[in-house]
Design brief:
The structure holds 2 protein chains of 2 kinds.
Chain A (H helix, E strand, L loop, with lengths): L8 H20 L2 H4 L4 E3 L3 E2 H24 L2 H28 L11 H7 L6 H24 L2 H19 L1 H8 L5 H8 L7 H19 L5 H7 L2 H26 L1 H26 L8 H15 L11 H20 L7 H20 L4 H4 L12 E2 L2 E2 L3 H23 L2 H11 L1 H6 L4 H27 L9 H14 L4 H17 L7 H15 L11 H4 L20
Antiparallel strand pairs in A: 1-2, 3-4
Helix pairs in contact in A: 1-3, 1-4, 3-4, 3-6, 4-6, 7-10, 12-13, 12-18, 13-18, 13-21, 13-22, 13-23, 14-15, 14-16, 14-21, 15-21, 18-21, 19-21, 22-23, 22-24
Chain B lengths: L8 E12 L2 E12 L3 E5 L6 H8 L7 E6 L2 E2 L5 H7 L1 E3 L12 H8 L8 H6 L2 H20 L15 H13 L5 E5 L7 H18 L2 E5 L3 H7 L2 E6 L2 E6 L1 H6 L1 H8 L1 H11 L1
Parallel strand pairs in B: 3-8, 3-9, 6-7, 7-8
Antiparallel strand pairs in B: 1-2, 1-4, 4-5, 9-10
Helix pairs in contact in B: 3-5, 3-6, 5-6, 10-11
The chains are: A mainly alpha, B alpha/beta.
Chain lengths: 569, 270
């Protein structure tokens, strides 16, 4: 904590240079240009500009935050402005360089259009440089002011701004979804301009975000608090009503949203099911599994082989008969993978499971199995599941299948977490040797974790096959495993709500931004690094959930750490 | 609890030897631990005490010899089976499940006495519910017994050092052991904490009727509460007996203080 005892001009320079370098990086990878047409606010502010100036904003914020602790607020403000100026100078430098030299030979993205964007609306070079410096300094100043604000307010403002950003991004989707609905027209006209939010809409969402956040963070107003004071039976009643209400909303969602958003939600949902499964293996039991996609593939291919009516038709079962087989086979694969890796820990386990995932993919692609599973051509004509006359034909119907899957899988994970099995997993995660010395049978406990996680992935795979109606090997890349692992980390390792939040952020958000596709991995990487640095416990950390079980006020921060237990030795 | 086998010793080790490659960490060690006693194993650093513990709990396989619990050999059994049979332990450098709450730590300790499996948990069967409630109650009682009432929902890592020690003992007790192995329970404690811990160990035997096998460095602790002491040096037993006998044994003094101390004493005696 006390290592930052001084904050000098040198530090100021350092933050500025980092801001400049990151900004240039963002420009050179093409983000600014790609996002330039995506307006957030009233044809004035677009996502490209946000991408361009956010490095300056963030670093000015960090710099001011550090400076504030050591020196005066005034110094912190100066710091943030200087960081902004340096960042702006870097961008201006790139502009000058790009104008006079052909940078395109190396950096493909430095197009005339990009340089035009970097002029920031100014005609001449001098004007453009000045504009860059002034706007950058202003953004830096804003970052600095943000750092000086009381935490409660800056948090609320952040939520407000995020809401504005989200609603701006959602414009296209909202128009597609609700554009022809009568009730939406006046709302749409109010909140959106031609491109981006209207000023009124911007103000609305900003205020809404701020108010919501302040309301949530103030203890007195918190709905949970009021409920907690009620007698037990009424508490139960409130919970049941809330759950039914939530379920009703979830059930109504696809009808309300229409086809495309339902499609996104089913994709997110399939990732949630996988996330819940991998969360058991990695989050609860602490077994780093990088080959998780293999079980997903096994589930999908089992359903594919057993139900297809196309060229590769075998038994032509219906989905419901194939589903248990798919789950069972994935589970068995989980156990089979588990056996050889019982003695492995950490990195070694990760490497072996990584290999396993690749083996499955290569096997699926192989000529050897081509007559049965179609090789690179995959399996086509997988019939849609149906119950009676209800066919799960499109995303709006498959959605219900996914929802049911999430509810079942989520319930199982939730039950296991607090049971004897879950405790054994967590004990094993914390210290394998001691867990064994406390009477936990490592072999069965580990295999149970692998099997449960794999079974969930099998279910997800089965639904995936039914959703697409055809499956191809390239859907089962390593990248799927990485996505699932990332969403767990972003949501909070071991946390069940975290899986849902993580999936919405990492899978749902990129679906909304088509321009985003090229930068998806960049975004993942940056987000993961940022998470590890700033919020390693994830967005929704696993609580010491005992708190919800406790009748009395939980014991809080009264104890002082008298002797730092382990660090000293 | 158990239909007491006739043996008056709860634990016997018979010529136990443990070698790591060419190094003999424990050599030909035989001890007999009477029921409901406090039995201490002492010796200088590296004398093989913790290795000996690891042999008893099944973490290491003994190279030679036999270990009997209640007259039944436990050599070659897995650690988790040995816990089930009634031996549990604590560690010299505290090894709690740091990111679990105090309550969860103790409930994990009760694991071998519970049965609920995957299906019981998922379907929340009446049997599972009852077992879980009982385990919870027992854990609460144990936490109170070791003086951690009010800390149930605190993460283990957030507890102060002395409380972590006691939590570790509560966790070990949760497996309802017949024999409790304590590895330097007073390490890193100040004199008043040490005294508190000494009384606490004494109470374990009085209140719970558990046999305690103790590794300890602090001579005052050992001399106060032990019934029998075995002294190890270089993995071998060099003395055994009641505290006063061991204290007077010249080989013990030599091992602890060096040769000079012994000659000095002899000169004084002469």
């Amino acid at each position: 904590m006390d290592k930052e005892l001084k904050f000098t001009w040198k530090d100021m320079l350092k933050y500025g240079v980092i801001a400049g370098v990151v900004a240039i990086y963002v420009i050179l990878v093409g983000m600014v240009e790609a996002f330039n047409e995506r307006y957030i606010i009233a044809e004035t502010i677009n996502l490209g500009q946000i991408a361009l100036f956010s490095p300056v904003f963030l670093l000015a914020y960090f710099a001011a935050n550090n400076a504030r602790k050591i020196k005066s607020s005034l110094f912190a403000i100066i710091t943030s402005i200087v960081v902004g100026l340096i960042g702006g100078a870097f961008v201006a430098g790139l502009l000058v360089l790009g104008t006079h030299m052909n940078l395109r030979a190396v950096f493909l993205n430095v197009s005339p259009e990009l340089l035009d964007i970097l002029h920031l609306g100014q005609e001449g070079m001098a004007g453009a440089i000045a504009a860059n410096l002034i706007i950058s300094a202003t953004v830096g100043l804003l970052g600095g002011l943000f750092a000086l604000m009381p935490h409660k307010w800056s948090n609320a403002l952040l939520v407000g701004l995020s809401l504005v950003l989200l609603m701006g991004i959602l414009q296209e989707l909202m128009t597609i979804t609700f554009g022809n609905k009568d009730w939406y027209k006046p709302i749409g006209e109010f909140i959106y301009a031609k491109k981006g939010l209207s000023w009124g809409g911007t103000a609305l969402f900003l205020v809404l975000g701020i108010v919501l956040n302040l309301w949530r963070s103030s203890d007195k107003l918190r709905p949970g608090k009021k409920v907690a004071k009620l007698p037990r039976q009424q508490q139960m009643a409130v919970q049941i009503v809330a759950m039914l209400l939530g379920l009703a909303i979830l059930l109504a969602l696809p009808k309300f949203l229409g086809s495309y958003p339902s499609e996104i939600l089913t994709t997110v949902g399939i990732y949630i099911i996988m996330g819940l499964g991998l969360n058991i293996v990695v989050g609860f039991a602490g077994l780093l599994d990088l080959g998780y996609v293999a079980f997903f593939a096994i589930g999908a291919y089992t359903v594919g082989i057993l139900t297809t009516t196309g060229k590769l038709a075998t038994v032509e079962w219906n989905f419901w008969m194939a589903l248990p087989v798919a789950i069972f086979l994935a589970m068995m694969a989980g156990v089979l993978l588990g056996i050889p890796v019982l003695k492995m820990r950490g990195d070694y386990l990760a490497i072996v499971t990584l290999g396993f995932g690749e083996i499955i993919r290569v096997v699926v692609l192989s000529d050897w199995l081509k007559p049965y599973i179609g090789g690179a051509q995959g399996i086509l004509q997988i019939p849609k599941p149906k119950i009676g006359n209800f066919v799960f034909k499109g995303p709006q119907q498959i959605y219900f299948l996914v929802l049911a899957g999430i509810i079942i899988v989520g319930y199982i994970a939730w039950r296991l977490r607090d049971a004897r099995v879950g405790r054994a997993w967590k004990a094993m995660r914390e210290d394998e040797d001691v867990a064994e010395a406390m009477g936990i049978h490592l072999v069965s406990t580990k295999l149970l974790a692998f099997a449960t996680g794999a079974a969930f992935a099998g279910l997800a795979g089965a639904i995936f096959a039914a959703k697409l109606g055809s499956i191809f090997p390239h859907s089962f890349n390593l990248i799927v495993s990485i996505n699932v692992l990332s969403l767990i980390i972003v949501g909070g390792i071991g946390s069940l709500p975290g899986v849902i939040v993580g999936a919405l952020i990492l899978v749902g958000l990129p679906e909304l931004l088509r321009e985003f596709a090229d930068f998806r991995m960049l975004f993942y990487g940056a987000l993961l690094v940022a998470m590890m640095l700033v919020k390693p416990e994830g967005f929704v950390p696993e609580k010491t959930h005992a708190r919800e079980l406790s009748e009395k006020e939980p014991f809080s921060s009264e104890i002082e750490p008298e002797a730092p237990a382990r660090e000293t030795i | 609890m158990t239909t007491a086998s006739q043996s008056e010793f709860i634990l016997e080790t018979i010529h136990v030897t443990k070698q790591f490659g060419g190094l003999t960490a424990v050599k030909d060690l035989s001890i007999q631990v009477p029921r409901k006693s406090i039995y201490s194993v002492i010796g200088p650093n590296g004398a093989g005490k913790t290795t000996f513990f690891n042999c008893i709990t099944g973490f290491y396989k003994v190279t030679e010899g036999d270990i009997l619990l209640d007259g039944e050999s436990i050599v070659g059994l897995r650690p988790d089976i040995i816990v089930k049979k009634g031996i549990s332990r604590t560690y010299q450098n505290i090894r709690l499940f740091q990111n679990l709450t105090a309550l969860e730590n103790v409930m994990v300790g009760h694991h071998p006495r519970m049965k609920a499996g995957w299906f019981g948990a998922v379907f929340n069967t009446p049997g599972t519910r009852r077992e879980e409630a009982e385990a919870r109650k027992l854990a609460m009682e144990l936490l109170e017994f070791v003086g951690l009432k009010g800390y149930e929902y605190e993460l283990a890592t957030n507890l102060p050092y002395g409380q972590q020690r006691r939590l570790e003992i509560a966790r070990a007790l949760a497996s309802e052991p017949k024999l409790l192995l304590l590895d330097e329970p007073t390490a890193g404690m100040n004199p008043s904490e040490t005294e508190e811990m000494t009384n606490f160990i004494d109470n374990l035997r009085k209140d719970l009727g558990i046999t305690v096998l103790l590794i300890e460095h602090d001579m005052r602790v050992v001399m106060t509460i032990s019934d029998i002491i075995t002294v190890l040096d270089y993995g071998q037993k060099i003395a055994e007996g009641k505290p006063e006998e061991v204290r007077a044994n010249p080989r013990v003094i030599e091992a602890y203080l060096g040769r000079g101390a012994v000659t000095e004493q002899e000169t004084q005696a002469a």
